[in-house]
Amino acid sequence: MTTPQETDLGLSLEQSRSGLRDGHRRSLMRTLFLVTGGALMVFGTLQFLNNHLLLASAEFLVSGLLFFGRYRIRRTPNLERWIYGYLISGFSFALLILIVPDASITAYVWILMIPVLSYLLLGKRAGFRLSAPFLLAGCVVYAVSTSLGNVIAVIDLLNLVLCAVLMLAFVHIYETRREEAEMKLFTMAQSDFLTGLANRASFHSTLTRTVAECARSGSGFALVIMDLDHFKVVNDTMGHDAGDQTLTRIGTLLTERVRTTDSVARLGGEEFGLILRDLKFDDSYELVDELRERIARMEVPYGDATIRLTASFGIAHFPEHGRSAETLYRVADRCLYTGKQSGRNTVVRAGVSAVRAAGQPSDRRTQS
Ligand SMILES: Nc1nc2c(ncn2[C@@H]2O[C@H](COP(=O)(O)OP(=O)(O)OP(=O)(O)O)[C@@H](O)[C@H]2O)c(=O)[nH]1
C-alpha cells in the first residue's frame, strides 16, 4: 500500500490563524529588512553630509542591524519574536518622528501601514491587538502636536482618524474572510465527502503524529485497515446509491463503537482505517473482532431490500510490528490481504493471528 505525502494538517491550521504562511512571512520580513535597512543607509549618508554625525551613526547602526536580521530571519526558530521586535520598534519609531516639531505632514501616511503589516505578519487577533493601540497613539500624537485651533486642522485630524479606522476595519474584515475560507478549504481537504470521516491524507497525518506521540510516551496503539467484502456486488445489483448509503452506515457504526480519542477514516473506495490508542496487543483483537461481528449483523434497508455484508481486517501494533507509519501500514495491509485470501469476514493480526470467519466451525490460528 502506498501512503500519501506527509502533511501536518494541524500545523497548517495553526498557521492559517497567523496571517501569511511561515515561508511567506519570512520573505516579507526579509523584504522589509532590506527596504528599511537600505532607506536608513541613504538617510544616514544624507545626515552625515549634513554634519549630523550622531544621527548618521545611529542610522548606520540600525541599518546594519536590519541587514543582520535579514540574514538571520531565514532560519530562526523565533520568527514571532523577530516580527514583534521589528513591528514594535518600527511603529514606535514612526510615532517618534511625528513628535519632532518640524515633522512633515506626509509622515502620517506611515500610520496607515500599521494595520496592514500587523495583520499580514501576525494574523487577525494578534494583528488587532498590536495595531489598534498604535493607531490610537498616532491620532493622539497628531492631535497634540498640531494646534486644533482652526477648522482645517480639525478636518485634517478627522481625515486621519477616518482613514485609520477604515483601514483597520477593511484589513480586519479581509483577514476574517480569508481565515474562514482557508479553514473551510482545510476541512474539505481533510474529510471524505461521502461519510464525513477523515480522508486518507488526514489519516496519514494523524498516524504520523500518533507514532511520534506514542514513541515519546511509551504507549502502544493499533493500526487497523478494514475492507468490505464483495462490495462491488452491492453496487452492481442495487446501484451506486445503495453502495453510498452502506458506506455511510459503516462509517457511523465504526465511529460509534470506538473511543473519541481514536481515529476513523475512509481511506478510499470501500477501505477504512482506524487508529485505536492505548490498547494492549491482545485487546485490539477483541475490539476489532467485535467490529467485524457488528458489521456482519448490520442490516441496511434499501427500498424493499436489505443489504448485509461482511468486512475483513488487518491489524498492526505499535511498537511491536513497526516504528514508522509506513511500516505499520505495510504490515496491516499484508494482514488484510491474508484475511481476504483466507475467505474474508476475518480479523488478522501481525504475528500470530486469529482468523474467525462466519460459518466456520472453529477459530483458526494463522501466522502473518
Ligand atoms: N457506492 C460506492 N461505491 C464505491 C465507492 N468507491 C468505490 N466503490 C466501489 O467499491 C467496489 C470495490 O470493488 P472491489 O475492489 O472489486 O472490491 P470488493 O468487491 O469489495 O471485493 P473484495 O474487496 O475483494 O472483497 C467497486 O464496485 C467500486 O465501484 C463509492 O464512493 N461509492
From TrEMBL:
Hydrolase among keywords: no
Q: Does the keyword Phosphoprotein apply?
A: no
The record ties this protein, via SUPFAM superfamilies, to: Nucleotide cyclase
- Please tell me which top-level EC class this enzyme sits in: transferase
Q: Domain GGDEF spans what residues?
A: 219-352
Q: Name one GO molecular function term.
A: diguanylate cyclase activity
Q: Which residues form the signal peptide?
A: none
Q: Which UniProt keywords apply?
A: Membrane, Transmembrane, Transmembrane helix
Name of protein? diguanylate cyclase
